């Protein structure tokens, strides 16, 4: 459990040992089914040897052996709880289909949007609708509003880290469990959220580098905050005004491997939409110095969170980026140029009818796109259909 200890007069200290009671429907493997880039994937082996069922060991093709679940109840009101398989054949699995697009039942089921279900707060663009589904994961208990940026924990892919009390001195980063289906896609959150890290003035950018350093966009103070690998407190802040960055970030992302501009840090300011490439140089203390900020272009919509589309995703024929547009109430897509910057003429809506689109992140297990909303919504929403 991620725990808070109010110890002594020096303020809270944090420990991060994972989130208890995370209910998942498939085991996440770090070494089986490797996708070739070091990411996590799910063991998809099949063809269990029936003679091995009952030996108390999880053999290939089995989902359980002597410890099979007896219920699939997930405490989510808007999904059904279906058990498939049998303990006798060691292949019990839980499935959680939605309740269907029925207006007025209080549920926004997978595959539904505001056009087909009045309970859905969003609308998916018709261009993307055939290939992508949206699921509203709801509001998380235990996390103070308003919501900031979010990311999947690099040390535990079943933990979501999300900013609470965003834009405030008392802001912090909280941990939630992630519930997955047998294919590894995110279908629910497991709360309540628990305090995991400091996160004063957190906003749409909550990003880990490859070594585990957490970098936070800090609004409205126009700063970046850095937490060393293994730290849960802000070890360093860097003011950005002197580098010419317009107040104040806003969104933040590091261009993933394989994409144009891979490894570059991108930052966008709200509400003006000024898009920058930052030069981050490792310092002697395990964080970074920010030595330059080059203004590349200015984008529309009052942008916040930034996430690069997994390569090979349906309908994205060219490398692209997703931007949560707070002011426009939507998530936009752009193709990117050779530096990983948006091409303005390619802007298209992915999800509309949102209140305060805020964070943006790609799930490393499934390729699912996660985003948060800030304000009267304060929701966590996942879009399924991207490549992984």
CATH class of the domain at 123-384, please? Mainly Beta
Termini separation: 28 Å
The secondary-structure class comes to mainly beta
Question: How does CATH name the architecture of the domain at 123-384?
Answer: 6 Propeller
Sheet of most strands: 5 strands, antiparallel
Strand portion: 35-45%
* Oligomeric composition of the shown chains: single chain
* Structural Rg: 21 Å
Give me the number of helical elements.
Answer: 0
CATH topology of the domain at 123-384: Neuraminidase
Estimate the global geometry from the Cα principal axes: globular
Element string (H = helix, E = strand): EEEEEEEEEEEEEEEEEEEEEEEEEEE
CATH superfamily of the domain at 123-384: TolB, C-terminal domain
Strand order of the largest sheet: 7-24-23-22-21
Mean pLDDT equals 87
Low-confidence stretches: 1-13, 15-46
Q: How many β-strand runs?
A: 27
Helical fraction: under 10%
What does this structure look like?
It contains no helices and 27 strands. With 388 residues, the chain is mainly β. It has a domain at 123-384: TolB, C-terminal domain (Neuraminidase). The strands form 8 sheets. A 5-stranded antiparallel sheet has the order 7-24-23-22-21, with no helix packed on it. 49% of the residues are buried. Mean pLDDT is 87; it is low at 1-13 and 15-46.
How would the blueprint of this fold be written?
Layout: E1 3-6, E2 12-15, E3 28-29, E4 41-42, E5 82-84, E6 93-95, E7 123-124, E8 133-138, E9 150-152, E10 159-164, E11 172-180, E12 186-198, E13 202-208, E14 214-218, E15 223-227, E16 236-239, E17 249-254, E18 265-269, E19 274-282, E20 288-298, E21 303-308, E22 320-325, E23 330-335, E24 348-352, E25 361-362, E26 369-372, E27 380-384
Antiparallel strand pairs: 1-2, 3-4, 5-6, 7-24, 8-27, 9-10, 10-11, 11-12, 13-14, 14-15, 15-16, 17-18, 18-19, 19-20, 21-22, 22-23, 23-24, 25-26, 26-27
């Amino acid at each position: 459990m991620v725990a808070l200890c109010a110890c002594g007069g020096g303020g809270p200290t944090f420990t991060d040992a994972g989130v208890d009671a995370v209910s998942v429907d498939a085991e996440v493997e770090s070494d089986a089914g490797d996708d070739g880039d070091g990411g996590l994937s799910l063991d998809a082996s099949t063809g269990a040897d029936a003679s091995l069922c009952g030996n108390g060991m999880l053999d290939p093709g089995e989902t359980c052996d002597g410890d099979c679940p007896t219920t699939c109840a997930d405490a989510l009101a808007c999904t059904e709880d279906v058990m498939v398989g049998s303990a006798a054949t060691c292949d019990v699995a839980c499935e959680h289909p939605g309740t269907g697009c029925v207006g007025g039942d209080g549920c926004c089921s997978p595959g539904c949007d505001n056009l087909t279900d009045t309970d859905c707060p969003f609308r998916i663009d018709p261009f993307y609708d055939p290939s992508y589904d949206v699921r509203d994961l709801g509001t998380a208990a235990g996390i103070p509003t308003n919501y900031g940026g979010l990311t999947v924990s690099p040390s535990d892919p079943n933990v979501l880290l999300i900013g609470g009390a965003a834009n405030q001195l008392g802001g912090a980063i909280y941990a939630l469990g992630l519930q997955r289906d047998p294919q590894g896609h995110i279908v629910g959150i497991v709360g309540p959220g628990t305090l995991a890290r400091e996160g004063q003035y957190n906003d749409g950018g909550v990003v880990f580098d490859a070594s585990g350093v957490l970098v936070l966009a800090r609004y409205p103070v126009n700063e970046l905050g850095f937490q060393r690998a293994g730290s849960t407190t802000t070890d360093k802040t860097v003011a950005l005004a002197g580098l010419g960055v317009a107040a104040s970030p806003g969104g933040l992302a590091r261009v993933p491997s394989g994409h144009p501009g891979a490894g570059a840090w991108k930052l966008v300011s709200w509400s003006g939409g000024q898009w920058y490439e930052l030069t981050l140089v490792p310092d002697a203390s395990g964080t970074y110095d920010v030595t330059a900020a080059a203004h590349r272009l200015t984008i529309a919509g009052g942008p916040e969170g930034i996430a690069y589309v997994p390569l090979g995703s349906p309908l994205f024929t060219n490398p692209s980026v997703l931007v949560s547009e707070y002011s426009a109430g939507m998530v936009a897509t752009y193709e990117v140029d050779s530096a990983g910057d948006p091409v303005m003429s390619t802007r298209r809506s992915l999800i509309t009818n949102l209140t305060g689109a805020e964070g943006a992140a790609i799930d490393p297990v499934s390729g699912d796109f996660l985003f948060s909303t800030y304000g009267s919504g304060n929701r966590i929403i996942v879009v399924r259909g991207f490549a992984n």
